[in-house]
Structure formats: C-alpha cells, structure tokens
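can u pls check wat happens w/ 2-(butylsulfanyl)adenosine
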Amino acid sequence: MTAEIDIDALTADQAAQELERLSKLLDAANRAYHTEDAPEISDAEYDHLKRRNAAIEERFPNLKRSDSPSEQVGAAPADGFSKVTHAVAMLSLGNAFDDSDVADFDGRVRKYLGLNAEDGLAYTAEPKIDGLSLSLRYEAGKLVQAATRGDGAVGENVTANARTIADIPQDLDGAPDVLEVRGEVYMSHEDFEALNTRQENANQKTFANPRNAAAGSLRQLDAEITRARPLRFFAYAWGALSAPLAETQKGAIDRLAQLGFQTNPLTALCESPDQMIAHYRKIESQRAILGYDIDGVVYKVNNLALQSRLGFRSTTPRWAIAHKFPAELAWTRLEAIDIQVGRTGALSPVARLTPVTVGGVVVSNATLHNEDYISGRDNKGETIRDGKDIRVGDWVQVYRAGDVIPKVADVDLSKRPERAQPYQMPDLCPECHSAAIREPGDAIRRCTGGLICPAQAVEKLKHFVGRAAFDIEGLGAKQVEQFYADGWIAEPADIFALRDRYGQGMQQLKNREGWGEKSATNLFDAIDEKRQIGLARVIFGLGIRHVGEAAANLLAIHYGSWDAFSTAMRTAEEGNAAWDDLISIDGVGGVMARALATTFNQEAEIASIDRLVAQLQIEKAARPDTDGSPVAGKTVVFTGTLEKMTRAEAKARAEALGAKVSGSVSAKTDLLVAGPGAGSKAKKAAELGIETLDEDGWLDLIGAS
Ligand code: IVH
C-alpha cells in the first residue's frame, strides 16, 4: 500500500484525487469479493479504505462523489441480514372497502361471540400507517432484537438499524420482562421530500414514495445509512409478552405510550359501526394534513379477552379489520395489450400504459383480467364500465388501492381514436403456438400446450422455487429464467441435477455476471438442503390448478405421507372411494379434486412428478401444535345449544387442537358434544356407543374450563 497522507493535511485537490482513488479501489474490491468470489484485499484493509473514504468525505462534504462508496453496500446480497423466527407470527389484516363491510365485520364478530345486536361491544379505530411493520423485542427492559415482518413467520434481523431510530426507546422502565412491541416504521412527507432532494443532488436513486423510502432506509446493511435517514415509528400492537399490558386494546396502547413509545393520537374508542365510520370520515378528512401517509383505518375489538376468544384465521385476526380509503385514480393512454401465459396456461391480457403517477407510484402496466373484462362484462356476464370495451389507443382511467395491481376503471369514449378496433384475444398461445381455447363456463382462455409450452414451464418452475414451495435460497425468478433459457432446467427434477451438470460443462455459468465458483457451490448446497422437505410444500410446489397453500396443507395433513397422497390421487375417479375420501376433506371441493385427479392421470405429468420425487426425501406431515392434545385426530360432532361459546368458535377451537369436526354422527365419530336440545344425533350416538360429553365436560377435556 502506498503511504497515505494524513487526512487533516490534505488540500482540496488532493482530497478529490484521493476520493477517486478510494472509490476505484473499493469498487474493485467489491467486485472481486461479491462477484468473482476472489477477494483481493483483507477485510481489515477494506474497512480501513472505507473509513478513510468516510473521514475525507466528512472533512470535504462538497467533494463527496456521486458514486461514493459510503452509499454503497457492496454488491451485497439481500440475504445479508440474519433471519429471525417470530415468537408470535406477524399477521396481516382483512380488508373492508365500504360502510357495509364494516357492519358485516361487526356482525361476524358478534355472531362468533354469540352476542346480540343490543349487547355492548367496543372497538378501537386508528389510522393504518403506510410504512413497514417492525417487531421490537425487549428483555428486562432492554431492546435486544428488531425484526421486519418478512413472510410473517420469519423476518430479517435489523436490530442495529432500529437502534438508530429516535422514536424507538433502547431501555424501558417498568415493562414486562419479555415484551415484543409491534408497530410501523414510516417517513414523514417533509423528510421524504428532503431526502429525495439530497439523493438527487448526490446523483443517487430517489424514492417513489415515503413507504419505499422507509423500507429502503431500514433495510440497509450499513446501519450508519439508516441513521442518516429520518425514520419514525408508531407502536400499535404486540407479540410475545411475559405479562399482559392491560385488559383492553386502548389500555395496552396507553401503556405503550407510558413506556415511551409514540402511539397515534387519532386512536378513538367506538361503541358501534356508526361511530367507527364517523371516526373513519374524520381521519379521512385529515389525511392530507397529517404529514405522513395512511391508507385506511384499522378497527380492533377493544376487550382483549374477546380478542383471544376470536383468535385468528390462517393469516388474519378475526378481531380486527382494515377499512381502506378508496383507490386513487389517474387517466392515461393504453399503448398496447400484451398477453402473458401463466403457470396453468391462462392467457392474461396486460395493459401497457403511458406511465402515469397514481397515488405516488408510477404505473405503466395494469391487469385486464380476461377477454370479457376487456369487452365490458364481468365474470357473471353483467356489464361493467357501462358496457364500454377497452381498445388499444384508448384514454383509460387507472386505479390502484394499496398493493393491489393497478386496474382499468373507465374509458373515455370521446377520446377514442377513429381507427381503434375492438380487441381480439389470440386463439393461439403467443409462446408455443398451441391452440388457446376457452372452455364453456370459463372466463379464461388457456394454452393447451401443457409441458411443451415454455411460458408454462418457466412459470411452473418459478412457482416451484417460490417461498411457500421449495424456497431455494439463491434461486429466484431471474435465475430460473436464465437456467431455463440456457437449457439447464426444464422441469423441477432438473434443479436437483444441476450440481452434476455443472461438473459436466455448466462451468460457463461462471462466466455469467453474478456467478462465481463460490456462488454456484452455495446454490447447489442450498438445493441439496431442500432434498428433505415437508409434504405440504411438495404438494403446493407441483403448481396444480386450484391447489393453493392452505389446500396443500389440508391435503398433507389428511394423507400424511407422499405415498398415501399420490396413490390416492392416481386412483381417484369421480364416484370411487378415493374420490369420496378426497372430497370429504373440509376445504376440498369438486373443482380442486378434479384438477388433482386430472394431473395425476396424465402420463407426462406423472413421469415428471416421479422424476422429482426420486430426488427427494419427503417428510411425513403431522398436525401442527396439537402435541398432547386429547382430541388430535379425533372426529368430533357438536349438537344442541352451546352456552359458553358459539358453534363457530367451538369448531375453530376443536380444529386448532387437531380434531376433525363433522356435522353428522357416524361410526367414524369419536366424540359427541351435546348441549341442551340435542335430539336425533345424541340418540344415534348412544346407539353407536359413542362417547358423549356436555359442554362443560368438553371444556374440561380440552383444558379450557
Ligand atoms: S394491527 C394482527 N394496526 O397493516 C395484525 N396494523 O395489513 C396486527 N398497519 O402488517 C396489525 N397500521 O404493517 C395494525 N394501526 C395499525 C396499523 C397496521 C399499519 C399495517 C401492519 C400490518 C398491515 C396489515
């Protein structure tokens, strides 16, 4: 290393030269390390260069380069954060879009709890902050961990970054021993504008909206960058707790405020849907002057004991809902209609628009759903947009709400170009030129190319490596497209043969941007890690039509093993025993059953699935969280009147404990829970010698009395 001039002794010219030299050195070091996997300098030397660069920049702020190394986090992968498994999952919220949805929500809550319309039931109503959620864990009053939501189960460890946010206390006085505070990280409008101006002046990337700016600022590998970004935090919920915060939602929020958190001043207690809607209107009227983005109002049942009785559906609480503000709108030109071919062969028309800003986000594409939608009819055949069709060249109104994909809401016929023609869906797949047909009763036109259609194959592969399926680290949509185009993978089984193929000439991968010996080996290791995998992920990963994540879970739990599942699917035929067993699963209907049976009936599909399965060790599926449950695996029937909970609540609780709840008594029934007024079912159970309990006996059994 050449002798370095002391920073205090540098002239401005020397400093500019030195910054240029450091920028080049650090750039080369980054490339060597991240892309070529062949570091040329030691970590200590690298750190020294980075610190020297920062120190010179601090002395000569005007000389800071537009490509300053201090703004770059190397070619670092996003997986630079360690992972945190949330002690209590971070869920999302169901949505309400209009006043009647709010009344329906109240109705559902009351029904579940068995309350009448006259019974008192209070809710909190507060702004829904448009930022990103963060979970802060305090132990003995000290902040020990901060994690992003991630997929709800596992987030990213951003503790160092969170410590730089002024609204987040590092120490708490008088808090429960374990306290996970949850809330939203956001950026004010003023700070967002100032940040973008700074970014622009420094020739750096600007952000589309405050939410993106907040997310980009929090998820920095270098916490010093986060420190320089003006992030804020509102607390509105909690995760794990060693002692309750209060008896009510409002009480808990007040307690968080006492502990030193910012809580939203527009939080109100409401006694009815009318009051909730009135508060929504009040918040909406103040939206423009709040100084930060909100996208709706969140209502939560105030009584925490009722919240816990209400519990959760798979991804959302029953005790809360987000009442969204209406979508934002803008007019623009429809330049073209492109067709995308999906995993199941569906042809989806996509609008290519002259870019337009809608609610702070630049929109250049919008979904057009299907040919009926384009021609002005919904999927029930009823007219939409007053029956106006959509043509290339049209002046269209685009709207978006939250993260929802933009849609075309309206067409201005007065601006329609004279030669605009009605849109005609292609009857050949644009990707493989197989016939694209629309079956009676289906709004979607589908490519009949199956496995030979490259678009379907690629989409299937992307689905296969996706988060809820095989979730292979380092193998995302981009890599799948590249490998497919290069002919390395055509179906899921090929992914597991990549390491061997690499040995036989795939080394050209190494010459590709972003791939080195080390990253290839890392990828193959990540693939090998997924050879042993849960049954539900395999079923979901197959990408069978109508079989979503929840259905895959149900199927896995029902069949328990791959052999049992695949044997059943291969034999299921409408009307036979395997079919009846399949559709007896609560949550599996005829449409899904048909899709499964069809897939397992096609030779090419079966061969492809068999090739995949030969590469895997598929774990047996066990019912989650029912260890020690006295009713796990049992079939329970409820009859008569339940006095301590509603039927829906009883069913949900029993299912959560691993029981199957059935509506009728048969020889398969293990247990009947009979309340007052039980009639023929109790009689039949007695005849069959089935164990019968009253409601208290049931509550004793499940340890809930
Ligand atoms: S309560 C169990 N309250 O909205 C759910 N969420 O769509 C607890 N959000 O992931 C969430 N403001 O990031 C809650 N006042 C608020 C909120 C809020 C914004 C976000 C949060 C959540 C998302 C759900």
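Residues 7-72 form a domain with the Helix Hairpins fold (CATH 1.10.287.610).
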